[in-house]
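Task card 7
Instruction: Convert sequence to structure tokens.
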Amino acid sequence: MDDKERRSALANFLRRRRARLNPAEIGLPLWGQRRTPGLRREEVAMLSGIGVTWYTWLEQGRDVKASEDLLERLSKVLRLNEDERQVLFILAGYPAPKDAPEPLEAVSPQLQALLEALDPCPAHIRNQRWDILAWNKAESYLVTDWGSLPVSERNGALNYFNNARMQQQLPGWEIGGRETVAHIRMDYAQSQNDQAFSRLIQRLHQNEDFARWWPQYEVQPDSTGPQEFYHPHIGEFLFDRLIVKIEQHPVLTLRALLPVAGTNGKEKLNQLWQHMNDQGNTNA
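Output:
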């Protein structure tokens, strides 16, 4: 994102975080009638030890530079968690905590072999822009046949919001969709100079759900955990979502869906794998 877009994002981020605070929880008296929820600008400025005009400029997206000390004070007043604090610093024009390498466009033969060794568990490798760079047969059969898509469409975010098959496979898609938007915003904030990422965000805004949730400015890193899944051949079952960073390439993550221990997920997955091999293709 360019400087103008960054300042606008910072302004919206601050307004959203200010609006979610309860004055009583901060210890402020409930004097006067409040036309909008949350703290007033004057209250944030007072608690942060800065001038109201200066803080107003930040919320207006003006070309001003906040010091790191001021940002630390704001993060405490606005009660930001660690992920939100990082986003605040990045949107204020400070470097990401770690240098962000350029997104890779391909993976090594060794990583491809690792994916294939995970069959029949679906797995893929993606970069920080959500581009799907490599996958195994189980991923093609169970999730999405990435190889059948043009390279420009092999993107996890695009398919989450625009792929009807993927939406049918995910019970509770809307809840997951809100979380996915928060994950995308976190990754986008850490990729300030990636113009391809900016173009991806523009494309995603063509989806009504994404366009409705994006302005809420929620940020959240992706995480492991349970993932409900549905497939027409075996019905619903539960996966454990595994996310592993590739040490040699920090911008890459390997993502796999593993059967949950103590359930019949492994048996169902083996049944599906056998069905796939009997069919002799990966296009279920």
